[in-house]
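Example protein was shown:

_____
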Amino acid sequence: MFTMGAVHLFLLSLSLLAIATAAHNITEILLPFPEYSLFNSYLTQTKLDDEINSRQTITVLALDNAAMSALAAKHPLSVIKNELSLHVLLDYYDSQKLHQISKGTTLTTTLYQTTGDAAGNLGFVNITDLRGGKVGFGSAAPGSALNSTYNKSVKQVPYNISVLEISQPIIAPGLLTAAAPSASNVNITALLEKAGCKIFASLIMSTGVLKEYQSAIDKGLTLFAPSDEAFKAPGIPDLSKLTNAEVVSLLQYHALASYTPIGTLKTTKDPVSTLATNGAGKFDLTVTTAGDSVTLHSGVVSSRIAGTVIDSTPLCIFTVDNVLLPTELFGKSPSPAPAPEPVTSPSPSPSPAPAATAPSPAPKAAKAPSPVYSPPAPPMSSPEGSPAEGPGAESENSTSENAAGDVKASSVHKMAVTLHTNLGDIKCEISCDEAPKTAENFLALCASGYYDGTIFHRNIKGFMIQGGDPTGTGKGGTSIWGKKFNDEIRESLKHNARGILSMANSGPNTNGSQFFISYAKQPHLNGLYTVFGKVIHGFEVLDIMEKTQTGPGDRPLAEIRMNRVTIHANPLAG
């Protein structure tokens, strides 16, 4: 039996281990090896080094200077970044594991798959044991050759990061020949309007700040664009009471004069200067990270990054859920904007909660009908097309055994995921062919680490358990597209068994990141909620979940947590 002192010592050991395993720096790892100096340099130039440093359980496939020189001589930086992203595997492989691959071949997720730019299965890599001591690497796209081989081990921090040398670049079809977008030709306002940031787009045009943004692009530019809903939120200052110079400073405050992708933001510790910065400590932002969520702090307000509009070297545009108010302009409480007129059309209300007010299901012997539970749903607070609440899909810490996240699911007939929870593992088959868009969203979120460390926030015995909200409140989460997406209701997919995997929603076509697993048949949900998978192993874990006691709002009293997700190309894979 553990004593309290032993428990404290055990927890301290775990915390020290976590600190030790999290501390790696790919630049420093490669520094003693001059043969990888060019590869190391391009990791820095593309900011992939920050993305690698923000992750755990990862493998970097390094190229020596000769191989890297041949690649870099022919392609722009944005294409090189995509290519090198394909050389970062979201799983740990050392020499021993490479030569012990189950059945001699496997598919593994890469960092490129988490970007949302990988079509089909271009974002994951085929690793095959060729026998005779050789291991081949190639694109997982059909017909692709194993054009690269394992040369040697470079450096390992066991089960955290592994660096291996391979003979030549892994080439995915079309990746190197795709036209690289020219930063000078990017239509910033069109991108903002499409992302639901029309007010912000209008302001930068009317004030002339757009021209300042455009002139900064070539050297690097990052924008934090508030959604239209953010400008309408309570407490937002009345911009008409600001001088033109103050409005310009406010808009400049939403931009950085550097290419700063999400991975770089995650590793940022010091205050960040903005385009509005005019002196030491003036108009700065600070950045914090909690799991997948990246939050910006102005000193007056905090704002989460909700989604990525574009990430193409040297330009990044993110959507944020609050207007950033600098202390230099709003050190005191800002004057509130005039209250909007009452809205006559009601906003969608959450599904009725089947909690304490609903009678318990009657036993079969009783003739009283069981209550019809509506499935859980996050409240709908923004219209279709505006950025959804919750952090974006590009993030960290997922492991992937065989396949990948942002896969166009219709090209892969069978995939599965294992949800590694604190109560045990649950393996689910994903209906890629029948619900391709939903599967694509779910797998990409899994691959990016979006669900890692999240909790199941609602649990109703005999009905379902719900999770997928990184805020843990039931009100957050977003899709990989940064907005709600449409239902995929199929006659062949029904809530007809225990262990059905479905999307939670707040009405038709309002899917984001939240999902639920049924504890029993729920035929009344058919046609209303998108079924996209089913549990195939781990029903005993589902039993434990169902028995967990709950409190107000059907929230589990003992935390049920999803530690990480493993993705399999074959549902029957281990």
